[in-house]
Amino acid sequence: MPAPGKRLHAPSVSTRRRVIDAALVAFARRGxxxxxxxxxxxxxxxxKQTILxxxxxxxxxLEVVVDDVAADxxxxxMDAQVDGGAWQKVRGVVRSVFSIAGRxxxxxxxxxxxxxxxxxxxxxxxxxxxxxIDKATAYLELAMDLGELRRQDARLLLLTSYSTVVGMxxxxxxxxxxxxxxxxxxxxxxxxxxxxxxxxxxTPACTGSSAA
Length: 212
What we know:
By secondary structure, the protein is an all-alpha fold. It has a domain at 58-202: Orthogonal Bundle (Tetracycline Repressor, domain 2), CATH 1.10.357.10. 76% of the residues lie in helices and 0% in strands. Helix 5 packs parallel to helix 8. The relative contact order is 0.10.
């Protein structure tokens, strides 16, 4: 039989998790500014004071949501590592991002919302993801040195790729929120378009490969 202390603590952990998950969806879909703790409490069937027991303010709740999203996105992109040349690796990352969009669109919706909010939330997210960005930059620079990718500014390339892929994916989330086309087929078309764009930008003229 579990210890009494653990048995009593389980509901608290569950409630805290429910608050974080509900806040993530609300911030991503409705926006941080228009989401109130009162509305979150009503959705969850709890009181506002219960939320404030775990998170002293909406800002504190956002910090925890950002931390969770950063960890999930980081893990998903690390899992996207594939064998092969530079383009195959880029393709693997893009496919992973679109996979996130299909399975948990609120994650990328929150990334979009944090970018809109700016500091301190955007700074916090960037701090979590900076090791991954540094690693990607170093890899791209090496691939360019080896002639596997077209020579250009690696960090600017990452920014452009981010804007292209995440922008397309979060636009899909907007469509889903509005009740428009959210089919898997539509997401596949967006992914193919993004890959074709990036392949044209990254692949040396003398090299060709499938973008699908």
